[in-house]
Amino acid sequence: xxxxILPTYKRSNLSFVKGKGSYLITKxxxxxxxxxxxLAVNSLGHCNSELIKxxxxxxxxxxxxxxxxxxxxxxxxxxxxxxxxxxxxxFFCNSGAESVEAAIKIARAYHQIKEKKNKFxxxxxxxxxxGRTLATISASGQKKxxxxxxxxxxxxxxxxxxxxxxxxxxxxxxxxxxxVEPILGEGGIKIIPNQCLEGLRKLCNKKKILLIFDEVQCGxxxxxxxxxxxxxxxxxxxLATAKGMGGGxxxxxxxxxxxxxxxxxxxxxGSTFGGNPLACSVAKRVIEIISEKKFLNDLNQKATFFVxxxxxxxxxxxxxxxxxxxxxxxxxxxxxxxxxxxxxxxxNNGLLSVGANENIIRIxxxxxxxxxxxxIALKIIEKTCIDINSKK
Length: 392
Ligand SMILES: *Cc1c(COP(=O)(O)O)cnc(C)c1O
Fold this sequence. Notes:
Layout: E1 18-20, E2 23-25, E3 31-34, H1 37-40, H2 49-61, H3 72-84, E4 89-93, H4 96-114, E5 121-125, H5 134-140, H6 143-146, E6 156-159, H7 164-170, E7 175-180, E8 183-184, E9 190-191, H8 194-207, E10 210-214, E11 238-241, E12 252-256, H9 277-291, H10 293-316, E13 321-327, E14 330-335, H11 339-348, E15 351-352, E16 354-356, E17 360-363, H12 371-390
The chain binds pyridoxal-5'-phosphate (PLP).
C-alpha cells in the first residue's frame, strides 16, 4: 500500500495498539518487551498510572495558553529543574533540537551582549548528534545528515572524539562555546570520561568560553543520575534536555546560569507551544518521580545487575558480542554481526531495541523497569545468540 507519509524513516512492519509498562501489544495480542522506549522517551514506561492521572486532571483544566500570560505550571517546573541542577533559568520548548537551538542562541547572545564581542563559533565532536534542524545538523556536521541541505549555518567546528589537543587548538578569538553530549547517544553510546569533562571545564574557564551539555538523550535519570554531568565534579553553563522529560509527552528545556542568560531579553527567543500547562504538568510529575533518591538508587542497582549479566552473555558469546557500553540504562551492545540483523532477531524473539553508530544496539529500558522484565530481556538476548549460533 502506498503510504502518504514522507519516507524519511526506516520503519519495521510492526505496529501496536496499546502500551502498558515495559510492554507494547499488537492488534493480534502479541506482546513485545519495549527496551527502545520510543528512543529514551518513555522514561516511566507506557501509560504510567501516575502520569495518566496528572494528564487527565490537567486536560480538564487547561491545555494551552500562550506565553503572553503567566503559566504557574511552567514556573513550578522551572523551579524544580533549577533546584536539581546548576541552572538559575529555564527556557521551555517541545523537542531536543529546539532545546539545542536555544542553547546555541543563548551562547551567541551572551558573548555579543555581555562581553560585546562577536564570538559565535561552537566546537562540537565528530559523530555527535544534536538534532535535525539546519543549526543542529550544522553543529554535528555528519555527512549523512547534511548532504542535500547546504549551505549550512556558519560557525561550527568539529573535532575528533577524545582528541584533547585538537579541541584546545580549535579555540580561537571567535569561539563562543564547546558543546558535547556527556555520553554520545546516536554516536554509539560513547562516554566522555569525567576527567575529560573536567578538562573541558578548565579549558572553557581559561579561554572565557561557555560549556554546553546536550543531555537530550542522557539526561532525566537515564544514566542513573538526574543529569549525566552529575557523575562528574563539574557543571556546564548551558544544558539542553528533552527526550525522557515528558515521559512521552513532547517537551524540551534549555537550562542556563543567571550570568550566561544575560543576552536573552524580551523578544529574543520564543516558542508558541513551549511550556504549555499540559506538557509542564506531566513533566513536573515525571521529574518528581525520577529525581527521588530511592528511584535513582533502585535504577542504579537494577542497571548494575543487568550489565553484569550482559557481560556474562558477552563472555559466553564473544564471537558475536564485542563490548557492553554505557551507564545506567543508556546501554549499548557492540555486536560483531550487522546490528540491524541482530535487532531484527531480537524483535522476532519479542525484545525491541534501537541501533546506533559503530554497529551498536541500544538497550534503553524504561527507568522503572522491573527486575523480572530485565531477566526476561536477558533470556531473549541469550536466546538470540543461541539462535544465531545454531544456524551456522
Ligand atoms: C534525539 C537527540 C536530539 C534531537 O532531539 P529531537 O527531539 O529529535 O529534536 C538532540 N540531541 C541529542 C543528544 C539527541 O539524542
